[in-house]
Amino acid sequence: MRLKTGYVAIFFTMALLLSGCSSLKTGVLNPQGPVAKEQYDLIMWSIILMSIVFVAVIVLFVYMLVKYRAKSTDEEYVEPEEKENKWLEVIWTTIPVVIIIALAIPTVKSTFKLEKSPSPNQKPITIQVTSADWKWIFKYPEQGIETVNYVKIPANVPVRFELNAVGPMNSFWVPELGGQEYTMPGMTMYLWLEADNPGTYIGRSANFSGKDFTHMQFNVHSVTQSDFDAWVANVKKTAPKQTEAMFKELLKPGLVKEQTYSSYPDVDVNKLDENGKPILEPTTPHHHGTTEETKEEKKPENKSTDSHSHNHHH
Amino acid sequence: MKDFLFNFKMPEHFLVTGDPLIYGAQVSIVLASLAILFVLTYYKKWGWLWREWLTTVDHKKIGILYLLASLLMLFRGGVDALLMRMQLSAPNLNFLDADHYNQIFTTHGVIMILFMAMPFLIGLMNVAIPLQIGARDVAFPALNAVSFWMFAAGCMLFNISFVIGGSPDAGWTSYTPLAGNQLDPGPGQNYYLLGLQIAGIGTLVSGINFLVTILKMRAPGMTLWRMPLFSWSTLITSVIIIFAFPVLTIALALLTLDRLFGFHFFTLAGGGSPMMWANLFWIWGHPEVYIVILPAFGLFSEIFSTFARKKLFGYGAMVYSMLAISGLSFLVWVHHFFTMGSGPWINSIFSISTMLIAIPTGVKVFNWLFTLHKGRIEFKTPMLWALGFIPVFLVGGITGVMLAAAPADYQYHNSYFLIAHFHYVLIGGTVYGCIAGLVYYWPKITGFLLNERLGKWAFWWFTAGFNMCFIPLYIVGLKGMTRRMYTYPAGLGWETWNLIATIGAFGMGIGFIILVWNMIYSFRRGEKDTTGDPWNGRTLEWMTSSPAAEYNFAVIPKVKGLDAFHLMKKERAEGRKEETPEIKPIHMPKSEGFPVVMSAFMFISGFGFVFEWMQIGAFGLLGCVITMIWRSFNDYDRDYYIPVEEVKKTELAAGRRV
Amino acid sequence: METTTTTKGYQPMEYKSEEGRLKIFGFWIFLGAEIVLFSTLFATYFVLVNQTAGGPSGKDLFEIHIFATETFLLLTSSFTCGLAILYMRRNSMKGYLIWTIITLLLGLGFLIMEIEEFAMLVEMNAGPTRSAFLSAFFTLVGTHGLHVTLGIFWVIGVMIQVIKRGFTPVTSRKIFMTGLYWHFLDVVWIFLFSTIYLLGVV
């Protein structure tokens, strides 16, 4: 009896799931560009393969439960001498192998494909993305402009996002345009995305980064190339310039509104420490070796103890 | 010197204040402690507590201590979970603020994995393994007590962070640089590092102990290939522990050095590598997942075979698949950060190695199903949990394969899809396994049967609640909801699913309450297990009385094949005459006080280091070393013999033939 | 020398009791865990070896005569430790004590040299907080040094027990286990010596 109640509960959940399916067409399941589409296809293929496994196991499971449940008629049950079956073992080892090969091949293909521009024949645009506590900064090196907490891209143009971080790691994720990539301090990574059509897509940080991480949501506005060009020209004309002091202020922990700048200062964020201060290489009095390229960056007037004295408790 | 001894730097907030929730916790902790002290004193139970529990080296009692602690931690971690689900039940709630939420999801993760799942399984191993292999205790009974008390010290240290100094808040993974001193100063993260470090010592020692026990102390005739599956899984798990836990020890030590002494392992300044933490953490962390799943697999194997009344199907395949899983578990860690820019080659290789795990796991599932084939399935509570495991673990497993495809993982990573996946695996596998094991071994532990009716209610509430909670989370994950958000805006289509999930979570809570109520109830009204074999068991543990005598077996049994006890019963039914071997005096270890003392010093040391009071930290370590030296000098005359007369008396009292 | 007449033939005293056999086996496994521990430290060292943050590298810091002498001391101590166990097996208290004390002195000499080396580096502003490379170096070599320190205390403790109680199955097991431990530290040092110091100065 109890079993039946359980089945009812499971059935009920399934029914609820199916009724919700129509509203599923958002986020990952609503791909709006070639990258997201590629991943969507892989996801769908994996769902198909896994459904085969799911159905096979569940059918077998229910069959065993129904057929071999203890009945009052089989009190005289004698344990059968059934230990193993080589053929069965071979079958249920081979089938998963086949399924995994069927999944692994497109996986590897996609992995390599997504490293490259989704539209190789088209000239891409580069946007540098920096995550800081707790905001997104977008620099357009080709246009010389900067936006904060929103980004505008031309539709049908592959975008090469160059990702880095000041402070903690974040993850740059716009589900409808494609998968995410971490933003990491001290190293630059990249992610290709492209939007098929004009529209607005929500992006957010997918990697926990502290107190106001939750609010690291931003909009990606995809517009036509001509609208994009007009917007850039307008920003150049009307938006304020960003000084280095303004940029440093922006890096401080906190939440800010959307911002637009017609220029940005030349700061290499990969040379900043966790708190957005420049990493200074201290001088070493007894240093008698030679280390090549690192030397030129040295700023001899500072010692490491100045910039992060709170490290040293002893 | 004076500066060193008397320099107590106080953190900004020593006692956590400013929140009614915390005040409530503080008051209730103080009241509960006072009540315990009062009861112990009033009923003159201190001596009893010391003799019977604090100094015990009996694996069965240590097992009970582990189980009690893990149930308590399941409660604590569960309350954390319910608080989170309440906060997320609707958009823009302010039930918890970001700081609290961050602390709660961190403690939830740490507690559930390290202070609930692992001790729960180690507790069940303690309860069952020596009995199952026909031994009188583990190889090193005193070290076994050290394991438990080290775990207890680490666990206590971690838990007091809630009221003293503040809990860690960088997630159970505590990625640097977020968890470094520069971005997260203060005691919270130190609690994480030191609590885990101390508990980790206990786990490593357990691993060594069980490996030696199983390899060297099996009853005569029990070859490796006649061992029950739970023993096999414990053996393999022990090996994983021995290879994985030193990596955690190092990872924690390095971050501690960074935070407390200004080293540069993971800092940006000085050329450290924040990403190295992720690597070290997951080189331990992925095997850890199998440390908590393989013993559960072992338990399920025992239960399927017992309640289907049939030999386990494909015993050899089951063992080899576990060995394969344990090997692969060390080769997949990068799949936890496909999106950290490792490059297409590395991502492809780790995608495939991850998918490969599905093959041995699949083999196991089919073998379990065919164990039912032609059997006679009785739906007793342990079997319900074991059967329930199959479909839910299947869902977790197939979504795991989906996650293994690196490009697709770019869309799932850190989203609620991932959260749903690993809860399906860890609850569906580990928690179902723990509860199944607990219910299965309950008569052996206590001598009472649990109430079947209540047991079934608990199962159905938990199972229904569980699916209701986590299926919606797969969906919100695909809709773009990321983990660790303390709230979310309205209008993204996440509201309904989150509300359903919250309701489901409370369903699981009700299931848990019924389970605990059932335990309390059975103590008072439960049917007594007089046979020692309530389930018609197949393995040696069911040969002993319930609960088993201190010495486990009056005479060590002789094993003639797989399912040794089943064979004995069969022979008996066929009327074969049993020889009555002679009872000899039994060699037993004496109780030991040093494990609890040593762990107390370890606790003090950890507490000192958490607040960077180096003198306290050093004092605790010194105390620990002195206790060890004391123990080494008193390592003589640590055993005694139970005389034959007493053994006979105990056996007769349990209604056994002598 | 006492010999047993089991079918297995000769059995050293430390292996005679079941407890002795179990503990020695367990200790081997513990050493396995120690290998993983040191391997992890080696791995972190090699990840960070070039991260000198503009500070000194191994080439600038490691002095051949220091680490060569350290190596000599520790390798010799491993040999004398082996001799001590040999004399224990021959039931010669005097031989055991002499070689154990020599082992301890060599170990102590090693330790003093290492501490001096560390002090010198800190003096040169090349302490563990200077760079990631130095953090990793100090932690790896220091962990080994800490093991040697604990080993010295352990050997002394066991020696006192042996003086008090003579060679029994329990004390001989302890001697044997400290011996294993000491040889293990020697093996780790060989790796340290060759991959850190030698590769460092090349």
From TrEMBL, chain A:
<keyword id="KW-0732">Signal</keyword>
<dbReference type="InterPro" id="IPR034227">
    <property type="entry name" value="CuRO_UO_II"/>
</dbReference>
<comment type="function">
    <text>Catalyzes quinol oxidation with the concomitant reduction of oxygen to water. Subunit II transfers the electrons from a quinol to the binuclear center of the catalytic subunit I.</text>
</comment>
<feature type="transmembrane region" description="Helical">
    <location>
        <begin position="42"/>
        <end position="66"/>
    </location>
</feature>
<feature type="compositionally biased region" description="Basic and acidic residues">
    <location>
        <begin position="289"/>
        <end position="314"/>
    </location>
</feature>
<dbReference type="InterPro" id="IPR006332">
    <property type="entry name" value="QoxA"/>
</dbReference>
<dbReference type="GO" id="GO:0005886">
    <property type="term" value="C:plasma membrane"/>
</dbReference>
<comment type="function">
    <text>Subunits I and II form the functional core of the enzyme complex. Electrons originating in cytochrome c are transferred via heme a and Cu(A) to the binuclear center formed by heme a3 and Cu(B).</text>
</comment>
<dbReference type="InterPro" id="IPR014222">
    <property type="entry name" value="Cyt_c_oxidase_su2"/>
</dbReference>
<keyword id="KW-0813">Transport</keyword>
<dbReference type="GO" id="GO:0042773">
    <property type="term" value="P:ATP synthesis coupled electron transport"/>
</dbReference>
<keyword id="KW-0679">Respiratory chain</keyword>
<dbReference type="InterPro" id="IPR045187">
    <property type="entry name" value="CcO_II"/>
</dbReference>
<feature type="transmembrane region" description="Helical">
    <location>
        <begin position="87"/>
        <end position="108"/>
    </location>
</feature>
<dbReference type="InterPro" id="IPR006333">
    <property type="entry name" value="Cyt_o_ubiquinol_oxidase_su2"/>
</dbReference>
TrEMBL record, chain B:
<dbReference type="InterPro" id="IPR000883">
    <property type="entry name" value="Cyt_C_Oxase_1"/>
</dbReference>
<dbReference type="InterPro" id="IPR023616">
    <property type="entry name" value="Cyt_c_oxase-like_su1_dom"/>
</dbReference>
<keyword id="KW-0679">Respiratory chain</keyword>
<feature type="transmembrane region" description="Helical">
    <location>
        <begin position="191"/>
        <end position="215"/>
    </location>
</feature>
<dbReference type="Pfam" id="PF00115">
    <property type="entry name" value="COX1"/>
</dbReference>
<feature type="transmembrane region" description="Helical">
    <location>
        <begin position="20"/>
        <end position="43"/>
    </location>
</feature>
<feature type="transmembrane region" description="Helical">
    <location>
        <begin position="345"/>
        <end position="370"/>
    </location>
</feature>
<dbReference type="InterPro" id="IPR014233">
    <property type="entry name" value="QoxB"/>
</dbReference>
<feature type="transmembrane region" description="Helical">
    <location>
        <begin position="235"/>
        <end position="257"/>
    </location>
</feature>
<comment type="pathway">
    <text>Energy metabolism; oxidative phosphorylation.</text>
</comment>
<dbReference type="GO" id="GO:0098803">
    <property type="term" value="C:respiratory chain complex"/>
</dbReference>
<feature type="transmembrane region" description="Helical">
    <location>
        <begin position="64"/>
        <end position="84"/>
    </location>
</feature>
<dbReference type="GO" id="GO:0006119">
    <property type="term" value="P:oxidative phosphorylation"/>
</dbReference>
<feature type="transmembrane region" description="Helical">
    <location>
        <begin position="141"/>
        <end position="164"/>
    </location>
</feature>
<keyword id="KW-1003">Cell membrane</keyword>
UniProtKB/TrEMBL annotation, chain C:
<dbReference type="InterPro" id="IPR033946">
    <property type="entry name" value="Ubiquinol_oxase_su3_dom"/>
</dbReference>
<dbReference type="GO" id="GO:0005886">
    <property type="term" value="C:plasma membrane"/>
</dbReference>
<dbReference type="InterPro" id="IPR013833">
    <property type="entry name" value="Cyt_c_oxidase_su3_a-hlx"/>
</dbReference>
<comment type="function">
    <text>Catalyzes quinol oxidation with the concomitant reduction of oxygen to water.</text>
</comment>
<feature type="transmembrane region" description="Helical">
    <location>
        <begin position="133"/>
        <end position="160"/>
    </location>
</feature>
<comment type="similarity">
    <text>Belongs to the cytochrome c oxidase subunit 3 family.</text>
</comment>
<dbReference type="GO" id="GO:0019646">
    <property type="term" value="P:aerobic electron transport chain"/>
</dbReference>
<dbReference type="GO" id="GO:0016491">
    <property type="term" value="F:oxidoreductase activity"/>
</dbReference>
<protein>
    <recommendedName>
        <fullName>Quinol oxidase subunit 3</fullName>
        <ecNumber>1.10.3.-</ecNumber>
    </recommendedName>
</protein>
<dbReference type="GO" id="GO:0042773">
    <property type="term" value="P:ATP synthesis coupled electron transport"/>
</dbReference>
<keyword id="KW-0812">Transmembrane</keyword>
<keyword id="KW-0472">Membrane</keyword>
<feature type="transmembrane region" description="Helical">
    <location>
        <begin position="180"/>
        <end position="200"/>
    </location>
</feature>
<dbReference type="InterPro" id="IPR000298">
    <property type="entry name" value="Cyt_c_oxidase-like_su3"/>
</dbReference>
<dbReference type="Pfam" id="PF00510">
    <property type="entry name" value="COX3"/>
</dbReference>
